[in-house]
Amino acid sequence: MRCWLVTSSIFLARARPRPLLSPRIQSTMNQCRQTTKTTTIVSTATETKKHLFLQKRSMSERPEDPQDPVSFQTQDSPVSREISQEERLAIEERQRKAFAFFTETLQIYGVEELIFCFNGGKDCTVLLDLLMRYLRQENISSGDIPMLYIKSGDSFTEIDDFVERCVRNYRVELVEYEGSLKEALTHMAADMPRIKAVFVGSRNTDPYCQHLAPMQPTDNDWPPMMRLNPLLEWSYHDVWHYIHMNSVPYCSLYDRGYTSVGNRSNTIPNPHLRNPDSQCDCDSVPACSCGPSRYRPAWELEDPALERAGRLPRK
């Protein structure tokens, strides 16, 4: 494990000419994001500098074989669910289109210019698994595209632990900041000026994401970067079909009725998944500690429009 303290600030290099993309439309990245409290990361080194601390960790203890399947031996093992032939074919088509998107991306950007944003949630978990499968198919090292994780003092322990396990088992390089997404990208642009585009697990049913394009430039007041959205057309149930079909490990919160995970202060289990005989009283209590039997798992939510019913309104 390595921790590097980066205190240099370098202006973002001008991108080289790219092939012509779809017409530019106004970005909504400043709305379609998860914002966390701005804090200073405490470094393990003796010197710290606010916002410019970049933590990079390589947690693989053995050389990577790109042909080896990713294997988890953790508590976050997916629960079996029968997938119909129709669902299977639909997800295979989703995966084919995602792989085509990755191929198109690598025709525009070098692999060293890419990073992917990961928050430990179900959508980012699918994005991570898809991207790692694609890289293995193309004989590209999983460590070549780093993982950007924005850490919060209000995050679920289960999410932080799951992120660590993903780093270890997918053998990716972790780049970690604290603050909002905009702050993280701003300082990442200074610390890692080679990065020109970021993969994000947004879906068009997410708040303010209805009009995002698959390749969407950031707003003018953000660091100049291309936002890559390969999961825009995926539905809530598509995400869970992919996870079960491919036995993808996921955060254990989803087994306890959480359907959309933010931070501890704004997230509760989805009330629409509470078992009828449950006496759990978590409908208004952040970070509910009720056991898995009190709520049905996330994939049993019938109406995807209720996905965010467990998110509390901002105070």
Structure, described:
With 315 residues, this protein is an alpha/beta fold. The chain has 5 helices and 7 strands; from the N terminus they run E-H-E-H-E-H-E-H-E-E-E-H. A 7-stranded mixed β-sheet has the order 1-4-3-2-5-7-6, with helices on both faces. Helix 1 (85-108) packs across helix 5 (236-245). The N and C termini lie far apart (39 Å).
The radius of gyration is: 19 Å
C-alpha termini separation: 39 Å
Structural class: alpha/beta
Coarse morphology? globular
Whole-number mean pLDDT: 78
Q: What CATH first level of the largest domain would be assigned?
A: Alpha Beta
Fraction of helical residues: 10-25%
Series of H and E elements: EHEHEHEHEEEH
Number of domains: 2
User: What is the count of β-strands?
Assistant: 7
CATH structural fold name of the largest domain: Rossmann fold
Biggest sheet, open or closed, and with what strands and sense? 7 strands, mixed
Describe the structure in brief.
With 315 residues, this protein is an alpha/beta fold.
List the topology elements.
Blueprint (H helix, E strand, L loop, with lengths): L54 E4 L26 H24 L5 E4 L4 H16 L9 E5 L5 H14 L2 E6 L2 H11 L5 E3 L15 E3 L8 E3 L7 H10 L70
Q: What attributes does this structure have?
A:
single chain, 315 residues, alpha/beta, Rossmann fold, 24% helix, disordered N terminus, EC 2.7.7.2
